Amino acid sequence: MAKVFQNFIKTIPTQIWAFLRNEYKTFFVGILTTVTFLLSPVKQILFHWIWNEEGSVELIVPESNILYGKPFTVDVIIFPKSSLPVSQGVLTLIYKQSAFDTKGNTVFDTPEIEQVIHPADLKNTTFIPIRSGSYKLIAQLKTKHGVYSDTATLNVAYSLTQPTTKNWSGKWDLVLGDAIGSMNLVDIKEGGGQANLVGTFIVGNEHGVVSGFHDGTMFFADFISQNRLKKWHSETPHHSDGHSIKIDGNAVLSRTDKNSWKVVLRDRFFAYTSLN
User: Fold this and answer.
1) CB–CB of 86/138 below 8 Å?
2) What superkingdom heads the lineage (predicted)?
3) CA 254 to chain centre
């Protein structure tokens, strides 16, 4: 009996080690399984089954009343509204193409979003109103698990100002070639020296954007059709009699040819406005 008891005592360390070894094995297997789960796509599926992804999109415009022909930029804020991050997606700015011309991208890839972000590439996107009226601008984010959007209503109006010798903002009569119409300019810099000009034009069946500048004697500008197939470039003297401003000369008409402009002909150019 004593011998049996002694043998039992001798086996206790071995039994304890075997027990601990099995327990540690179970513990480490548990840890490995947990880590593998957290790093696998199964985690995302399970988490989105338990909790719903919720995101928020906020579209920020400079103001609801926009001046016809004056460029503007927008900002978008995106952030999660639940414990889950907003998954990768595509942000699209949706607008009426007949009412706005754009420079830069209007579709952007977005990363997984865990906190508030402002898409950086948006600062390179510019909208130019080319038609008066009330229009909606929508920022829409589509992800694998949801669609989130915000809408702004923009009221586009012609400039209520009348051009002066120091500020050319306002409506002008315009002749390009044999087509008669008008242009609406926004004078970005008032006072003496060079003044930058942006705006829109309509002559005959053509309409588009104006970009240029004027100094004390000359007017320099490009008139680019909305479909970007035609461009008129004018470098023309201007003069004022105290009651009006006249720009009378020529414009070179170019057409797109394999991603470059090819000169087609020299057209008549004339612009006129009465002074305030």
Assistant:
1) no
2) Bacteria
3) 29
Q: Write out the chain's pLDDT in tens, 276 residues.
A: 555 445 544 554 555 445 445 555 555 445 545 545 445 454 555 555 556 788 899 999 988 888 777 889 999 999 998 888 899 999 999 999 888 888 889 999 999 988 998 888 888 899 988 877 889 999 999 998 889 999 999 988 776 678 888 888 888 999 998 899 999 888 876 444 556 888 889 998 888 889 899 988 999 999 998 888 889 999 999 999 989 999 999 999 999 877 788 898 998 999 999 986
Q: Which residues contact 43 (CB under 8 A, 6 or more apart)?
A: 37
Of 129, 157, 185, the position where a domain reaches its end is 157
pTM, whole model, 2 decimals? 0.57
**Residue 108 placed within a domain:** yes
175 and 140 both lie in a single domain: no
Total number of domains in the chain: 2
Classify residue 211: in a domain, yes or no. Answer: yes
Q: Which of 157, 189, 208 is the last residue of a domain?
A: 157
Q: Which two tokens stand for residue 254?
A: 């170019």
Q: Across the chain, how many H-helices and E-strands are there?
A: 2, 17
